[in-house]
Structures are given as C-alpha cells and as structure tokens.
Amino acid sequence: MTISELRKKFLSGEYTPKEAVADAKSVIAEKDKNIHAYLDVFDDAEKMAEEATSRYQEGGENIPPLCGVPLAIKNNILIEGKRATAASKILDNYVATYDATVIKRLRDAGAIFVGSTNLDEFAMGSSTENSAYGPTKNPIDPSRVPGGSSGGSAAAVAMGSVPAALGTDTGGSIRQPASYCGLVGLKPTYGAVSRYGLMAMGSSLDQAGTLTNSVEDAETLFKVISGRDPHDMTTIGPDTYGAVATKETYTFGVPRAFLGQGVDADVMERFEAHLDQLRADGHKIVDIELPLFEAGLAAYYIVMPAEVSSNLARYDGIRYGVRKEGENLLETYLNSRADGFGAEAKRRILLGTYVLSSGYFDAYYGKAEALRSKMRDELNAVFTQVDLVVTPTAPTPAFKLGEKSDPLAMYREDIFTVPVNLTGVPAISLPMGEVDREGISLPTGVQYIAPHGGEARLFDIGRKIYDAKRYNNG
Amino acid sequence: MTKEEILHLGTLSRMRLSDAEAEKLKGEIDSILDYIGQVNELVDDGHLEKKVGLVHNVFRDDEVTNEPGSYSGALTAAFPEREGNYLKVKKILNPDS
Fold first, then answer.
1. What's the gap in Å between the CA of A334 and the closest CA on chain B?
2. Signal sequence: where (chain B) (predicted)?
3. Which of the residues A88, A173, A226, A309 is marked catalytic?
C-alpha cells in the first residue's frame, strides 16, 4: 500500500479514510502483539478519519495532499496531548505540550496519526533492542531485529499497518531500518526539515525523515515536512545550497576501499548486481576515494556522545518526567537518572562527558570536529566528479535479536550511514534485492548519497530504479 | 580507565552507577576509546581549525511569539511534584552543612 494509491482510491470514493484507519487498527490488533512496533495507538484517529471522509465526500478542489492518510510517528517526535517517551523510563509519564513542526505540517496536510512507534531509547541504537518497553521484531522474520533506532516506524510500515511513518536519523536510524525491512528510507539534508519538537540526540546530526513503500511517497511527504521554520534556525531554504540538477543518466561514485570493511559476501553480490543494472541502464560507475570516510564512525562516536551528554542533561526528574526522590537535590538527580536511563544511554552519556572533559576535549572532540570538516571537503571534491555516491546501506541484512551484545559490533552496522550525517548531505536507502538466511529471504538496501540540497536528484534516480523491479529481484 | 574514574564520570553526569555497572562500563568504554582514538592519527595538532560550512548564528527579534499563559497549564501539569503553581524540589541550601 502506498500513499499515492490511497489518494487515488480516496478521490474515486472506492475506499475511505474511515476504512483505511479501521484497517490500520485491525492490522495492529492482529500483528502488533508479536511485532511490537507501536508504543501507543491513538483513539482519536477514527474521529479524524470521519472528518477526512466527509472532506472527500464534499469533493471539489484543494483537498489537502495527505487528507485521510494514516501515519505512524516515532515516539521521539512530539504530538500535542500524546505521550512522548522516547522509549525511556525517565519520560514514561511525559505528555507533549505542543506539536513538532513536522507534525503540524502533516496535520495541516490532512494526515491522520494512528499511533506512536517504538525506538531505541532516545534514538540510540541500531536494533530497537534498547527500548525501555521491549524490542520491536522484524515483520519479515520475527527472530530478527527491524534495525534502529526507527525500528518501530519501519516495522509499522513493513507489517502493513500504515503506508508510511516518520523516523529520525542521527547516524542511520532511518536508512538502516529501511534496509532491514525492505522499505524506502530518506535522510534529508541537515536543515531541510525542522527539528522543532524532536527530542534532541545529536543536534548537529539529527534529521527527521520518512519510511515509505515508494520513492514517490517519500517525495510527497518530504514536500510537506520540509522548509524553513522560525522555530529552528538551522533550517534551510531552497536557495541555501545551489540547485542540484536532475539528469537522464548519472555518474555514480563507488568508494571501493571503504566497502572492503566487513560487508557480507552475498550483500556485496547484490550490490555488484545493482551496479551492473545501473550500467546496463546507461549510468556510469566510477571508483572514488573517500579515505576519511573510513574514520567516520570513529569521529561519530566522539561528536554524537558529546552532544548526547549535553542534550540528555535536561532529563533530571525536576520539571517533568519521572522523579526518584533522594535526601537532597543532588541525590534526586542521581536517583532519577540512574533509574530513568537504560544501559546504552548511560554508556553514551559517560563517553560524552569524558570526551568533553578538560584535558581530553582537544584530543577527542576538537579533532573529531576538524576531521568532520575535512570529510566535508573530501566529499565536496568527489561531487565535482560524480553525481551520486553509492554504497550498501548496511553491511549485513537484519541480524538476530540479542546477536550483537558488544556495543562496538552494533556500532559497526552504521559504518556506511554515519558519514552522511557527519557531512550533512541527504541520502536515501532503497531495496537492493534479497539474501537468504536460514531459508528466509531478507531484504538488503542500497544507499544513494547526493550533494547538499540534492533531494530532487535522489527522488529522480530513486524513481527510475525503484519502478524497475529488476533492480530488486536480483 | 579505572572503576573509580567511571564512577567519577557518573557523578559528573549526575547518574548513580552501581559497582557492577561501573565494572562493565569500564571495559566497554575502554574499547570504544581505543577505537575512536584513531581520529588522533588522522588530524594532527596543527590542524584543529574547522570550517563550519553554511552553519552560522541566526538571530531573530526578541519577541514573545505565543499568547502569555497559553502553555502554563500543560507545563505545570507535568511537574513531578507541585504546590499550587509552584514546582516543588528538595532544599538546595542545607542549614546543617
């Protein structure tokens, strides 16, 4: 099911928003006990669906583009009056007091929110196993993870409850779950989409984006949620970066040395087959060097925890959230945060506190930021030779729940996605064909990376290849 | 990294850590620090300057953009403990110390 198909049916009257929401709810009732994509399911969706159904019945022009479309929203994005937990115990009782800008824009476009989705606590993880409310399972193989941190959003779409969901992506948290669940995942240019009302994790890296069943839907949603916002001064306009042209055929850059890093053999085969298909369609494939990208993950695990330790300082049980009283104020802080945060949040807060501490600041944070700046230069230079950079989205298909207990092993799943956040460029993950694991076909993903502001190019090439099913059957 | 250092980082970041947690974190943080240390080899000390691209400070006029009081009810309702419209917290100054 796609948004564009729904829209056609709503307009023709063959299907109504009321039916769509009822169907979404029955899929959730049937499947979510096992999958656990949702943290909360909203009971006001039916009322919104009724209004949307009337809107179509009235007919006429100017029915908003997402009128009556049911969506699921990652639970680190604020929806007024709804619980916003970020899958953390410390916010278990927190109810959002305002709509995030992305929510307001979706609401204005007529979308209906059917529920909030599970995530790794404060979006920190690559499997959705770090949720305080228990993991989400991959609908394709429930013994495996859906990826993370937007695993609930990916599973909500993959299990067929909604045509699309919002996620957030700080180091791959939209693209990697899209890859594991066989979806289209878009991480926009940093600043393209407002972060107002998103719970900050790594403020210089975070972007909201979409998980969809088609490239066209990703574009439809992106047009609605993107644009300048007076509430987020880092948002960009259409002219901030120069126009990134669309073309008949593109030149793709493949960072060969970078891809040597632990990609499963059959994922690599799918990737080579994908490149062959691109060549066959008249695109040009060239090898490129991105030596600093190989160190991207190391820089990321300095910059991100540093920002995490600052951003999560606000959760202290004083003004909102869960408070665990102690003898005095300091004890109250110590207790609330000890009880409220899970293991991964604690690990990153400590790491961030360490790399920002006096004496280590220059050696870690200073150097990581300098490296990041050099990475941006390196990538900009590459974009003078090629139109797009292409990599697998993740080195493996979905792994088993509990398989990666070593934090560093988990972090490595994001090796190809984090450089994109560090440099602020947009990227999209598209299905790249399937690989077999224990007799089950699991999806893999290909990542296309465009220059800053190049979403239109991603949608263009995405449409060209996504509609051509031969790219996916491999 | 010693266990004491981990516990100290915990205090700095206002998180109580159990001995068992600190012990486990010690090994994990050590291996992560070992991994991220590679940035040191890629950027020498003479090249710490960075360009921040198009990111720069953006200012707006210091104006109130919402109706006064429009969020007060919802925000005070979120207080973990309250007395009337006051947020209740533990004493900060202890007369005994």
1. 5
2. none
3. A173
Tens digit of pLDDT for each residue in A312-371? 999 999 999 999 999 999 999 999 999 999 999 999 999 999 999 988 888 899 899 999
CB-based contact, B56 to chain A, within 8 Å: no
Q: Which residues in A123-137 are b (16+ Cβ under 10 Å) and which e?
A: bbbbbbbbbbbebbb
Name the catalytic one among A88, A126, A131, A149. Answer: A149
Residue among B10, B50, B92 whose CB faces A373 most closely: B50
Beta strand pairing call for A251-254 and A388-392: parallel
Which tens digits make up the pLDDT trace of B60-80? 888 888 888 899 999 999 999
**CATH code, domain with A151:** 3.90.1300.10
Return the pLDDT at A473: 39
pLDDT at residue A262 in the model: 86
Amino acid at A26: S
Q: pLDDT category, A467, cuts 50, 70, 90? A: low
Residue contacts between A and B (CB atoms, under 8 Å):
155
Distance CA A195, CA A214 (A): 24
Rounded to 5 degrees, what are φ and ψ at A165?
-145, 155
Domain residues for the domain of A192 are: 1-474
**Which residues of chain B are within 8 Å of residue A91 when distances are taken between CB atoms?**
none
A234–B40 CB contact, under 8 Å? no
Look at residue B53 and tell me whether its pLDDT is greater than 70. no
Report the pLDDT averaged over residues A106-121. 98
Structure tokens of A458? 């991603």
Q: Please report the pLDDT score of residue B41 as a whole number.
A: 83
Q: Please, are residues A264 and A435 in contact by the beta-carbon 8 Å criterion?
A: yes
Going by DSSP bridges, is the β-strand pair A112-117/A70-74 parallel, antiparallel, or unpaired? Answer: parallel
Q: Alpha helices, DSSP H only, in A69-214?
A: 101-108, 151-158, 175-181
Q: What is the mean pLDDT of residues A6-33?
A: 97
Q: Does A400 touch chain B (CB under 8 A)?
A: no
Alpha carbon distance A427, A192 (integer Å): 12
**In Å, how far are A96, A208, A409, A423 from A310, measured between CA atoms?**
21, 20, 25, 21
C-alpha to C-alpha distance for B27 and A193, rounded to whole angstroms = 38
Structure tokens at A52: 């949307």
pLDDT for position A474:
35
Does the beta-carbon distance from B32 to A351 stay under 8 Å? Answer: yes
Phi, psi of B71 (to 5 degrees): -110, -5
Query: How far apart, in Å, do the first and last CA atoms of chain A sit?
Result: 23
Q: Which residue of B has its CA nearest to A411?
A: B32
- Tally of domains in chain A: 1
The secondary structure of residue A316, as a DSSP letter, is S
Indicate the residue type of B47.
H
